[in-house]
Amino acid sequence: MAQPAWDEIRTAFQVARLGTVSGAAEVLGVHHATVIRHIDALEKTLGTRLFQRHARGYTPTEAGRDLLIVAQTTEEQFAQLSSRIKGQGEAVAGELTITSISGIADLLVPVLASFQELYPQVQVRFLTDMRVFRLDYGEAHVAIRVGATPEEPDNVAQPLPHLRTGLYASKAYIAQHGQPKDESDFANHRFVCIDSEANRAPFYRWLRNTIPASAISFRGTDPAALEEAVHQGIGIGFVAAYKSRIAGNLVEILPPRPEWDAPLWIVTHVDLHRTRKVQAFLTHLKEAAKTWLA
Amino acid sequence: MAQPAWDEIRTAFQVARLGTVSGAAEVLGVHHATVIRHIDALEKTLGTRLFQRHARGYTPTEAGRDLLIVAQTTEEQFAQLSSRIKGQGEAVAGELTITSISGIADLLVPVLASFQELYPQVQVRFLTDMRVFRLDYGEAHVAIRVGATPEEPDNVAQPLPHLRTGLYASKAYIAQHGQPKDESDFANHRFVCIDSEANRAPFYRWLRNTIPASAISFRGTDPAALEEAVHQGIGIGFVAAYKSRIAGNLVEILPPRPEWDAPLWIVTHVDLHRTRKVQAFLTHLKEAAKTWLA
DNA sequence: CTCAAACTGTGCATCAGCGCACAGCAATAA
DNA sequence: TTATTGCTGTGCGCTGATGCACAGTTTGAG
């Protein structure tokens, strides 16, 4: 059975509220003939008269009064919704979904925490996964990406300070195997490396080219596991510079080199990029990123 | 500030619910291009994106999810309203407003009582006044009129048994003044008459023509007062035949004559005449009217 | 009684919104 | 890889909804 058009209900609502076709037409900003046609159409689909017509106006029938009550609340609901939506583009509140690879979670979580402290009405969702979340599917407001420049057409990408990586060993490893004198000594040591040949991280390519396979004593697929291996003294491996500073039990074998740097990107979808909530987070993140260099 | 069109909100609601433009178009029975245009227009008036567009569909933003929730309840409200209105034309329930002149209230009230007993879900409003209520202003569902054939264009009028009127005196009057032997004796008696010369009731025209003014000892404007005067023994006067039967303290001076009869009419507005509720009352009233003759 | 104002109602011309058709893109299966 | 399916997006032609003008009615004031 045919459902009535919502616009016709709104027209009927104004007629019931004001009592005249002309008044409703003025409020709705249409010609009064349009109002009459809406009412006629609505009554036809409902199969009942909504109004008693007379020369001085329309008086609602029982059904018309029923519609008046229902549409009244609808009117209010929509008005609230409208102003809420119009306002929320300007308000820093509601959900804010951030995504990144899990490897840099400990870098971001403090930023998220301080951001939430700054804007208590924001509910932060922090999604990390091996796969790349898609902004154009609305999966997140902001993505932190590491690696090559994002090329998606509808995304806006902004650079963050590069993620510096150096070669480290734990104090436990040094105590057991000593510290390499120079690069020629590396063959006599034990290294930790990613298992995948396909991994395109520049420092692992360097490692595969420089270190003989025999010196690589631990391989794994999970970056977090490799990092833990370095901490446990299993071997020498690459660790992000900021993590080594936090850890305290690591000895720098080779300092970070520019060619090992991984570019960090803030990526947002064009549609959401302009909103004040996203902008607030972006400035906050960029501000926090300055301290990463120190 | 411009309010969004309700139809566009409904379109956006279906898109948010189904996730695709095409799906919403099919449900709404319009072309998918129309759906896209509605969304674009709605987002423009709201000044915010409601959906993230991608090749596989539309995923709602925060604002879109907000709209989804609000419009969801609206959808349900309207569906309920729609079926309620569609059904109520067929249901004998809700308000039923009856109107008549106050003079025949006691004739109608028993009918109303038994009707309400028959259909307990009906709430009866019984309006009586000196003025004639106007059906085309929606003041009542059914009017009981007495007198000339109603001529209003949008009203449907059905005849009821004529209202018979006779000349009566109370037993108290008879005890004091005796009973008139014949019409020539009327000049020696006391009569009760309406005060207005303009009153067109046929029996009062007869009275004004037949009874000398000197014999009319009580005049008034309110029919109820005149009737009470007859009961109190002030004089001989016209009383509806059915009332004299009920009263029991009245003596018939002249029996009802056909030329004194007042036509009774059931009048309804065309728009409401077809509804089952009104029809139910009409049949009930006509059935009850048959007993008035007995 | 007459006039003016306010309202409904309708035929007609116009224009905006609609459906249509096609292009383009993404995902899935073979 | 290629073919297929299902989706979005857009220009074009047309239909149906809209605005306009005028007629008819009622009400209230002078």
UniProtKB/TrEMBL annotation, chains A, B:
A Pfam family that this protein carries is HTH_1
Signal peptide interval? none
Q: Which Gene3D superfamilies match?
A: 3.40.190.290, Winged helix-like DNA-binding domain superfamily/Winged helix DNA-binding domain
Enumerate the UniProt keywords alphabetically: DNA-binding, Transcription, Transcription regulation
Under the heading InterPro entries, the entry gives:
LysR-type_TF_proteobact-type, LysR_HTH_N, LysR_subst-bd, WH-like_DNA-bd_sf, WH_DNA-bd_sf
**Record PROSITE patterns:** HTH_LYSR
Where are its TM segments located?
A: none
Q: Does the keyword Transport apply?
A: no
Domain HTH lysR-type as annotated: residue spans: 15-61
- Fetch the SUPFAM superfamilies from UniProt: Periplasmic binding protein-like II, Winged helix' DNA-binding domain
Family affiliation: Belongs to the LysR transcriptional regulatory family.
Tell me the protein's name. LysR family transcriptional regulator
Species, as recorded: Pseudotabrizicola sediminis
